[in-house]
Q: What sequence folds into this?
């Protein structure tokens, strides 16, 4: 039996992942996502990706909220996934910066404001207790 943490990996999701792997161009990706998702879902996905990019660039939550319209609760949730999730955000953020041999699109720097420093390391705010992923 699957654990609760793994029960999101259904046969239908696996089929969707396989379909996504068949996409070859940006135009194909746009057509597939537009057919698959509502406009609201697409906007939400795009906003989450923008928040992840801004978090990675070190912007403060208030600035990310101002730029994207995302609530601080949404930003906190995305920061939690970025730091403690499955690693998908981190993988694609690294690739989007044009790592060697990726051929990925390089996104403009989201800003120069960074989190407070602790021992020279960028520190993300702690997620409030009881917050769901």
A:
């Amino acid at each position: 039996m699957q654990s609760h943490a793994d029960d999101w990996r259904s046969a239908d999701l696996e089929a969707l992942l396989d379909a996504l792997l068949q996409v070859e161009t940006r135009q194909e990706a746009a057509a597939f996502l537009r057919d698959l998702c509502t406009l609201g879902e697409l906007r939400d996905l795009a906003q989450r990706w923008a928040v992840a990019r801004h978090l990675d660039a070190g912007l403060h939550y208030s600035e990310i909220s101002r730029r994207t319209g995302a609530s601080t609760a949404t930003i906190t949730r995305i920061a939690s996934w970025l730091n403690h999730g499955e690693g998908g955000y981190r993988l694609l953020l690294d690739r989007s910066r044009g790592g060697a041999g990726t051929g990925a699109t390089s996104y403009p720097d989201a800003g120069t404001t960074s989190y407070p420093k602790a021992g020279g390391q960028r520190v993300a705010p702690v997620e409030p207790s009881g917050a769901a992923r």
